Amino acid sequence: MLQCPSRGYGHFFFVTGDGHMEIDIRDRATLNHADVTALNFIRATPPYIFRRHYRHGLRSHIMEILNPGDVAIEQSGTIMDGIRHFPMARPRRMFRIFRTRLKTLDEALGEIDRVKIVERFLGPDFMATSTECIVDYQGPAGREIVLCGFQSYVSGAILDPWTLLDSAELLGTLFDALGPATRTAALAKAAWITKVQQQGAQFIQRVKRMVEKARHIPDLAGVGNLILTAGGNIRLVDINNISPVAMDDVIPLDEKGYPSATNPSRRWPSSRKKFSAGRSRSVSRSTAISSPPGDGPPFAKKRRYSGSRGPGIDSLTPPQP
Fold it and tell me: Which among 28, 109, 138, 290 would be 20 to 30 A from 167, CA to CA?
């Protein structure tokens, strides 16, 4: 049974099926296509290929959802201007499996509530929206609740808040790092930099409002959690790692026993002046994930159910007059 709440929890989708895995999916170090299609809530013969994404981590399995034709071109290559190229298959969507054990439905819905906080303050312009799904997973210990997510794919450059780069060169370096993709954005370099500065200012203000109004903050400190697209847009892609803000000197631990993202994330937007003196954000060439609109993937087994539930940085911002 797969229960996928739509925006605002107005409707749900149940996905049912038979299946059994001897090793709990959450305990597996890595997954492959066969592991995913063996899940009781995924079709055994989906029209796509699942491949592990390099950014899978402690909190979630992250799988690319690929078109088989794109994978075939990646493997065999294609001739362009007399030269054989091997373009990497571009994911159509991303599939995430949350590793955390959820004992009750309320715990699962609580996780989704936190995603809704991010959506309320950053969405849709500054976050990767997601279709979160509550799964009745058939595992070795019987049926258990597991949280999953279906997300669309976005490529871009990583905004690394901890790597140092001279602030005067940051945005120019980002523009060059994105390569030919920025040329298709129909923006000259100067115009692109101006747009990023405006986006950065708006992003900071929205994060501040989230802290002030909801007393929560997403993980802004993790490498790869913020992506700058070729069009000059800033996207938060790790939307499931959000913590309450505690205005004290205590550093809480997450469910894995690691320091929570709350404190370093809180320092990040508040330390703009320090970084404007030269300690700014760096970038590495990469890609990231975001989320698709719609009710869910075409390969999930589903039936409709109606239900309801209540509800560095200075170099990215324009100079002040």
Answer: 290
